[in-house]
Amino acid sequence: MIDKLSSILTDVKFIPGDRFCWSPKEQTISYLPDNTEEDGSWALLHESGHAALNHLVYTTDYELLRMEIEAWEKAKEIANKLNIQISEEHIQDCLDSYRDWLYSRSICPKCKVKTLQNDHQNVYSCFNCHACWQVSPSRFCRSYRSLKENDQVILI
Ligand SMILES: [Zn+2]
Ligand SMILES: [Zn+2]
Q1: What is the mean pLDDT of residues 17-42?
Q2: Residue 95 belongs to a domain
Q3: How far is the CA of 24 from the centre of ligand 2 (A)?
Q4: Helices and strands in the chain: count of H runs, count of E runs
Q5: Which residues are within 5 Å of ligand 2 (an ion), measured at CB?
Q6: Structural domain span for residue 77
Q7: I need a labelling partner for 14 at 20 to 30 A (CA). Which of 41, 93, 130, 133 fits?
């Protein structure tokens, strides 16, 4: 599969790593070599989607979510070429986990009100109690952190 993807994405390097991740800076896709399950190939296709669209940076959570959706659309195109079917349910699950994560970042730690992100990346301020907080930089690979459970690598 890596061979086939390399022939489509000729400028991208595929390297074994500890998670599925697209790195725009290095122009590389890392992947979990041990994951030979269906969801592993889907994750690989998803990262290939980011790479094919050359997703570089985003400034807001909303933009990140949009790129995630676009990457899945592109992943489906690439999957078609390889005669692979990506489960629509899996895609929705991944996007939901992104939405949940973005939502939890936007809750004021002081008064628990839902707030909006500032124009600056990773900064939130609460309109209710005026608290300000920073969140860790979000990345494209967020939803593909790998977790080892009972010696099995699962994707979350
Ligand atoms: Zn607040
Ligand atoms: Zn992604």
Answers
A1: 89
A2: yes
A3: 12
A4: 4, 7
A5: 68, 71, 140
A6: 2-108+140-155
A7: 93
